[in-house]
Amino acid sequence: MYVYASSLLIALSQTATPLFAEENTSEPPLKVVEETSLERGKELFTNICSHCHNISYEYSTIGASGLQGVLERHDETWINTWLTSPEALAKTDVAAQNLAESNPFGLTMPTLPAMQDENNRRAVIEYLKTLK
Ligand code: HEC
Asked: Is 48 in the pocket of ligand 1 (CB under 6 A)?
């Protein structure tokens, strides 16, 4: 369905005379916005998170948990706070503290500059939701 919506948008943008002139085309349909955010999330994950995390249930070689099904272990709000600063959350949240202490090599997740941007966090979380 997403592919269909974006193809339609591309088709519309390439048509000199808009097919649906009465529609406000400056605001793309919601589904297309979601897809863009999902793609951005995937890109962020590939560029940043995948250095340490697998897209499976398997722990990575540095002992970071695989992020498949992570939304079943934590809710969105928790992940959003964690991504903003794992270190800060570990000071107030027992689950975060336990995670930070569980790494077999004593590694902890760093506070990431890209995750200081709320839209980036939201995009990554959208992507994490697809890892079921
Ligand atoms: C430098 C390595 C590193 C990077 C990069 C990294 N993480 Fe982590 N992450 C960890 C480690 C290690 C843990 C385990 C907890 C700890 O030790 O702090 C963790 C834990 C997590 C958890 C909790 C997992 C669970 O099973 O409870 C989530 C969610 C998470 N990371 C998401 C992300 C996302 C999303 C990104 C990219 C934006 C990311 N991490 C980037 C190392 C990293």
From this structure: yes
- Answering whether pTM is above 0.85, one says no
Q: For 14, phi and psi rounded to 5 degrees?
A: -90, -5
13 C-alpha to center of ligand 1: Å?
39
The CATH code of the domain that includes 94 is 1.10.760.10
Give yes or no for residue 120 CB within 6 A of ligand 1: no
How many whole angstroms from 109 Cα to the centroid of ligand 1? 5
Across the chain, mean pLDDT equals 84
**114 CA: nearest ligand 1 atom:** 38
Looking at the 3D structure of the chain, how many domains does it have?
1
The domain of 82 spans 32-130
